[in-house]
Amino acid sequence: CPDRSLVVSGFAFDTEQQAEELALGRARTVMQYYRNLGMPTRSVQLGRAIVQSEEGWLDEPWEGRKVSSALTRE
Questions:
Q1: Distance in angstroms (rounded) separating the CA atoms of residues 53 and 31
Q2: How far apart are the first and last CA of the chain?
Q3: CA Rg, the chain, in Å?
Q4: What is the pLDDT of residues 1-19, one digit of tens each?
Q5: Distance between CA atoms of 34 and 16, rounded to whole angstroms?
Q6: Is 6 helix (H, G, I), strand (E, B) or coil?
Q7: What is the DSSP letter of 29?
Q8: Which helix (H) or strand (E) is 71 found in, with range?
Q9: Strand pairing partners for 67?
Q10: Cα–Cα distance measured from residue 61 to residue 74, given in angstroms and rounded to the nearest whole number
């Protein structure tokens, strides 16, 4: 879809060192994956760094260490 972009956001826990940069690094890694698959650079955009409180996520610790992507119109 030429009129769509993929916006990739990264997540980290507030207890991780340099959590915001870590979240952005996770997002950048996924962005590079999409580019390696052949997606045009202009179609993959960096979203935001989302730093979550680790409290409340103890039952599922993987939930805070993820990346999400959303398809948007250009």
A1: 25
A2: 10
A3: 13
A4: 667 888 999 988 888 899 9
A5: 26
A6: strand
A7: H
A8: strand 67-73
A9: 10
A10: 34
Distance CA 31, CA 33 (A): 5
**pLDDT per position as a tens digit, 25-69:** 999 999 999 999 999 988 999 999 988 887 766 555 555 556 677
Neighbours of 40 (CB within 10 A): 10
As a residue count, the chain comes to 74
Residue 14: Cβ within 10 Å count? 12
Q: Do residues 68 and 11 touch, judged by C-beta distance below 8 A?
A: yes
Distance CA 65, CA 51 (A): 9
Residue 63: count other Cβ atoms within 10 Å of its Cβ.
12
> pTM for this structure?
0.77
Cβ 49 vs Cβ 68: under 8 Å: no
Q: What pLDDT, on the 0 to 100 scale, is given for residue 61?
A: 53
